Amino acid sequence: MRTLLAAKDANMSQSANVDAQQIDLFNQQAHQWWDPNGQFNALHKLNPLRMAFIQQHQDFPEQKILDVGCGGGILAEAMAQAGAEVTGLDLADDLLQVARLHALDSGVKVNYVLEDVADHAQAHAEHYDLVTCMEMLEHVPDPQAILHACAKAVKPGGWVICSTLNRSNKSLLLAVITAEYVLNLVPRGTHHHDKFIKPSELTQMGRQAGLVMQSTAGMEFNPILKRYRLNDDLSINYLIAFKKV
Fold first, then answer.
1. How far apart are CA 47 and CA 56, in angstroms?
2. Which residues bind S-adenosyl-L-methionine (predicted)?
3. Which CA distances in Å does 224 have to 4, 16, 199?
4. How confident is the prediction along the chain (245 residues), in pLDDT tens digits per residue?
5. 10 Å Cβ neighbour count for 124?
6. CB 10: neighbour CB atoms within 10 A?
7. What is the pTM of this model?
8. In Å, how far are 52, 200, 221 from 47, measured between CA atoms?
9. Distances from the Cα of 208 to the Cαs of 18, 66, 74, 112, 148, in angstroms?
10. How many angstroms separate the CA atoms of 8 and 97, rounded?
11. Which residues are known binding-site members?
12. Phi and psi dihedrals of 26, rounded to 5?
């Protein structure tokens, strides 16, 4: 496995908006990304909900889509299978290698790129019909800068769709303590409650980036009852759809 320092020196912008410890954690878990019964089981269960929410706002066929923080490619592959032209962007090199290998095995065409989103947006301004940023904003030092880059990359009238975690007592209990330390649904240390973002805060960040909030939805993830669905409860995991003015 390449060290994080080597990957950064070879491929990352020195000003990359990245938490090195989080990148290292995800790289260490890269081999488990596509195991539906492994430590990323939650992502596999939530992906159909993310796809359903996106489809409420944007059709997939022949659309150019940028998936920011694509990880091992669970969402990127699904969107490509639905007919989109997808570019997956991440700074975790080992995860991107897993994504590329899985795409080869599954025969799905996705362009995976190791690049900071700000640099990519600078080179591909107003290029995409849709930009997705799922379960990523709570892992970076400056989520506002990520939204600005997403807004720069999307065409006028295009969509930016994000998902993240609300900074609530309920999310601390269920998304951190229960999910990581009781049920072991995600690797320990994945989430830091102080980095979670309230919907009102994310709406304001979007507004400052020239994005207008159009709709929201909560994502219910109940592994005990095996119930996974979109709802109106934004207290834990939630999705938000912005449109570029």
1. 14
2. 50, 69, 90, 134
3. 36, 39, 26
4. 333 333 333 344 434 676 666 566 666 666 778 888 877 788 888 999 999 999 999 999 999 999 999 999 999 999 999 999 999 999 989 889 999 999 999 999 999 999 999 999 999 999 999 999 999 999 899 999 999 999 999 999 999 999 999 998 777 676 666 665 566 666 666 667 778 899 999 999 999 999 999 999 999 877 677 788 999 999 989 999 999 98
5. 16
6. 10
7. 0.84
8. 9, 24, 11
9. 21, 21, 30, 29, 8
10. 15
11. 50, 69, 90, 134
12. -65, -35
4-244: which CATH number, 3.30.470.20, 2.40.110.10, 3.40.50.150, 3.30.230.70? 3.40.50.150
Q: Which two tokens stand for residue 97?
A: 């290698």
Of the candidates 245, 236, 243, 240, the residue with the CA atom closest to the CA atom of residue 53: 240
Residue 5: helix, strand or coil by DSSP? helix
Amino acid making up residue 241: A
Q: CA–CA separation, 172 vs 182, rounded Å? A: 13
